[in-house]
What does this fold into?
Amino acid sequence: HQHLLEIFGKKDVLRVLCHPRNYYLSTDEINQRMRSAPIQIDAIEVSHRGFYTPEYNISQIPYPQIATDDAHELRDVARCWIETEECKNPDRLFKAIRASQFQIKMA
It folds into this structure.
């Protein structure tokens, strides 16, 4: 079982394979899950509760790799995020993420 996040824009949906470190997934397992999913998964999260997990930010995983703070508690807020030129229109943001046109930032 894997955590999949769906973020809804105005007309589009972004799907992210969340925190693979929590499930101890190998690179091969991640790629297999991304390819075999019954729906398109657009990106993979390379952070876990705001902590960067560099072992998943590698070229062997050929999908956009995003970072989030995944805040469960106040202290988790603003540890990891992505920055892109497009930040106001969610559908354009999704397009930028799919094209890997963003940068990972960490506090």
